[in-house]
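Follow-up to my earlier ticket, as requested here are the two runs.
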Amino acid sequence: MISKRATHRMADGVRVPGTWRHAFIRNGDYFLTDLIIYADGLIDCWGLVTLDEFERKLRSGWVATELPEGARASGHDLAGWTFHEPRTWLTPELLLAEVRDTIEQLNGRPDSTDRCLAAAEAFLADRTEDKRAAARAAYFAIPETQRHYALGDMDRKDEPLRVLVAGPGGHTEEWPDDPVTQEEYDEAVAYFEDRARWIAERAPRVPADGPTTSHAPAVHVPHTYPLKPSDARNKKSLRTDFPAPVDIDGVTYPSIAHAYWALSTADSDARAAITSADTAAAAAKLAADARRRDGWEQARTAVMTRLLRAKYAQHPVLAEFLLSTEDATLIYSDADSAFWGDNAGRGRNWLGRLLELVRSELCAERAGLG
């Protein structure tokens, strides 16, 4: 079952989301470790394996669900102990089913609980024994450890669901010797009818000011070598080294990269040389040999914000292109900086984030809110 423990790994520059849970690995002794499950179906249990390979490790006991009396165990750099009267809730089948459900959840697809509830709804809409049997089979497909969470009701647990799929005269696992009465069954049906009404009437969990995720696909702004003067109004125009002159305090810089590097130093001769450099790359090289201003590292984000605002205020056509990215996440690559660039998930992407800020400010101005 997916938890709030979020992680990821990078695969060919793509961020693959994941989560983890505790598990024991048997490698001679037993080791408490993290079992990391990724959305692409790979599982890290002391090495990445496919789901089929993970199942074989489960069946072999490498990933352990049975903890024998007297076995030695340890948590790395934490503690060591010996099992005494160990109890475990899992079997290989249960753990495998939970991992499969987690992969579905990471991908936003229906898991075994979702499929069961859909089958229950289908039965309630057409109460045939075939539909009930399908709902019952779907109920038993939920990992046993997760069934009591199926309805999200911690008072009733899954009792109404068990009664519904058993039917009048049927038997539930909790009370195998006592058949379900008509009254209990009618109560379960009423519960589901009420539940459907609650779901239909409850306010959606979406902030009042709009969705929490972008509707536009992410835009990747790749590093370019070299960037020559161009009239292009495309992703290249989002780059700081794009040749769009900007006036800052009465000084015209060939690009905001020139302005950024010139402002980074208090040396007036170096500033003049940087400003007149043929390319942004040449400006950066000159700046590397000059002394940075005191406090530059703490001020640089504010400076870049000011420069971006100036660029798009002074170049309306470029502002139109930035606005055309709508609410897309802007992923900025900078081979020279893990601070400014995303760099396949290894950087902080500050330029992408600041471009999104300036885009939002442009939208606010258009809406009369600026």
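Run two:
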Amino acid sequence: MSGIYIHIPFCKQACHYCDFHFSTSLKKKDELIQALAKELEMRKDEFQNVTVDTIYLGGGTPSLLSIEELQLLISTIYTYYKVSEVPEITLEANPDDLSEEQIITLSKSPVNRLSIGIQSFFEDDLKLMNRAHNVNEAKECLSVATRYFDNISIDLIYGIPGATNDQWRENIEMALSYNIPHISSYALTVEPKTALEHFIKKGVIENVDDDIAQQQFHILIDALEAHDFVHYELSNFGKEEYFSRNNSAYWQGKPYLGIGPSAHSFNGNDRSWNVSNNSKYSNAISSGRLPIETETLTVTDKYNEYVMTGLRTVWGVSLEKIEKDYGKTFKDYLLLQAQPFINQHLLYIDDEKLLVAKKGKFLSDGIASDLFKINV
């Protein structure tokens, strides 16, 4: 099984924290949609013997597209690829784009999962982040969406400067009140060259406090696990049967095809990525060229990636797989590097799997990097 990710590089306005590739000008949207469909056709041979199980329209803001544009992209996949009988087809959306009419239209389309960028139910937080929607739009959107879609995920951000732990608890309670089966939640991070970094340097916004972010992360885990959510990946919580199939495939090393400017692909041996420029991307595709760069992963690269993704998940890092795929030397190295973290009760071994303990979860990416082998 495999997935196709389509990057829709347009947004109404720039969120202060975002460092993804997008444009706030929609002038060349039609041209770019045609280029996305053309790239899907050009790359069909890469998935010749593969069944597509997930289609994910991300961005950017895919909900800016009309239903006809979405249908074009999805039908192009069905034309050139073998798609499973019941694929997971996710649309990332912002609340301000999802009117009741739009939600009803989407519910009659092939899209069967919505991922809605709520981020917070507090107006001050939304203004600080420069989100395009307000709290009333968020609540109204969820009230309507839950009537027409069963499979909904929402995004929430914690560690926002000035947001207290009690406010964060209110955010979680508000999300739970809509009976959403999946929540993705991320710490606010200060990415280079973003407006957020600029405002923090100028003293307009106070800096992100890692201690508060860690406290709010653990508040989130306790609250969601008490409501029968499984913390199946570092930033993702789902009810049984509602884990994101798209993201789970990525964390488990399944192949995926990334379509659109800045999109990444992986085939098991090579990682590739498209140019992060809408005009260069469209011009290349229209002239029959793929604007793509590729790197072939070494055994060490693959080991490091598996450790990084495995430790983020409830499935952990299989010691048996490490030995089978990479050799006993890698397994011995992993166990040696992991021992100090096991002694500190940050990692543990269960059923021949290396897993992150609850108190180590907030630190798991840093722990993983200490387990990496260096390419010599």
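The only thing I checked on run two: The chain is about 40% helix and 20% strand. Let me know what else you need.
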